[in-house]
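thread: overnight batch results

M.L. [08:02]
morning all. the overnight job finished for the chain we discussed friday. pasting input first so we're all looking at the same thing
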Amino acid sequence: MAEEKIAQKIYVGNVPFAATEKDLTDFLKLPAKTEVEMPVFRYNPGRKMGFAFVTVELASVEGTLKFNGEEMMGRKLKVVLAKPEKQSKPDRWQKDTFSKSTGSGGAAVMVAKPHRSGIPQEELRKLQRLREKLATVKSDVDVVTEGVKKLDISKLQMVDVAANLTNFRFNNNLEMVISRALARGVHKMVVCSSTLEDSQQAIILAETLPGVLYCTVGVHPHQAKSWTTENGVLLRSLLDNPQVVAIGECGLDYFRMLSSTKKQLEAFEEQVQIACDVKKPLFVHDRSSKLEVLEVLLNYYQQLPATLIHCFTGTEKEAIAYVKHGFYIGVTGFVTKQDRGKMLRSILMKKVIPLDRLVIETDCPFMMPAISKDDFHGVDFTDVMRWRSNEPCTLVLVANCVAQCYGVSLEEVVDTTTRNANKIFNL
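M.L. [08:03]
and the structure it wrote out:
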């Protein structure tokens, strides 16, 4: 009877998102049958979390640990002994987030379990009660700013054109998140979608607060791998709902490459065609496409409806090209980042993007803006930092940074971007 070999689990951090389990075992010079766990996000099964665990025989531990600090696909790996099982998963992930399955080469891969039912019914009931409250007052803001009406921030009337409110991080606090947004000057929010499931959830959510919540429907390039003709048919069937104001988030993402170029182009082009057919605005994702997104859009230029390039983080050349063809640009909390946002701030300061072509967004729970420990116009934003998830209520920080870049007042940025959002989506 063969002697059972003792194994040791090793943590590998900063793993390139494009790396497969085979890439990792080859790089670490491990056998093809090595057990590998590469966690992915439950709310976005196609997106890896950027770390892995490999289980190796004791004799191979020392050799594997020598790869600590070595560069793989441009990223320096962190290779250390894994902590005990109970501590190895981040606290914020629930126990049912992952399950094991067998990947290529017989390696064990952590995959997402099926998405749960979505927005809890209790949260929908809370939103219904909030809707009833809002109906009894003259202003959207009055009900949630009781006691703080003196704050100018509550009267800014901003539009957050991208809020991922169907994300699981908001499952148990939606009413609070939306109330906080209304209290801090965000009077309309567009709930954006990444999958057809998201799209259906977004419609359900938007219907609970008409006049406050709107939504997009579409398939993100990360999810394009599963695009079929039937997806297009289902997408068209969702467009009659009055809460649906745009098609997207669709486009190309050549940074993570979670779907092949062919599938991304197929899904994007079909969604652009649908937008042209039904005259719904396009909500576009472009990351590292080097203007290939623009090439696709120009093929339909004579038919294109209003088009928004969402969460812009590109170059000055890309900004010039998009503005030249009449597209709108969305700016998030990325612009407030001291180092990463420097190029985008430069683009705004040069007025490459005219203010009448700009809209503001949070892309929450992502793109958390830089938040000072000091209050902003009497409002303390550290409550958002505590939960490490961005919220629509931080939109004023984006607007303030944009105002500083253009050298105009906060009120002018809010008035202009709100007018732009209303025009794009016919809010």
